[in-house]
Amino acid sequence: MNVNDARIGFIGFGNMASAMADGWIASGAVPAGNMCACAGRYEALVPRCEQRGMKACETSRQVVETSDVVVIAVKPYMIESVLAPLTDALEGKAILSVAAGWKCADYEHVIPGAHHLSTVPNTPVAINEGVIACERASTLAEAEHELVFDLLKLLGSPVEVETHLLSVAGTVGGCSPAFIAMVIESLADAAVKHGIPRAVAYEMVSQMVAGTAKLQLATGMHPGAMKDAVCSPGGTTIKGVAELEAAGMRSAFIRAIDVIEG
What we know:
single chain, about 260 residues, alpha/beta, Rossmann fold, ProC C-terminal domain-like fold, 2 domains, eight-stranded mixed beta sheet, 11 helices, about 15% strand
């Protein structure tokens, strides 16, 4: 089966699930009509599905029965109560979990024998620029694994990690968009302070962030080398770098990840 033919169903259709659906639709490879979803409030779900060209389902069993790939996107505390009654229907389905904290061994306790993969995507999947942390341990069959990863590649970059690293990989990929948004906002505020209109400031700073990231990915340069390339001796940039170091910028980012990981 290829991505164009795959039928994808979402159990839960919150921010992350809808971002994934938007990314697949934007890719042009997954027809919106091949996707369906269910959620706690059906009346609120219907317009969200209809505006995308997707089908709204009243029950999770409907989603499972009409899908090849089932995306589990409910709150982690709900997973057991939602999936346990669906054990029979999930047979032969590829299950893609985006529920934080749920790993392969956890699913084996709830739906033993089912075929599943645990992942932690981030919101840029909506524009096909996401990073998706994927647990290397998986019970997907070979053909299912290939299909699921082909689908994930449409959303950005799937990165496989060992089970004990899934949490931190998900934190770095999933939480950091909020941190970078704060960086964008702060630099734009500085630009506005010095006279640049806010809309222009946001455009400049966001493009700078996107361009810097693409440059690193394209060249593989060490971020420190990229920084050094901009810092002329006695120049303006090194003065700004020194001020950021004095303010503890690096350690603040590291502490942010540390506090999330506990």
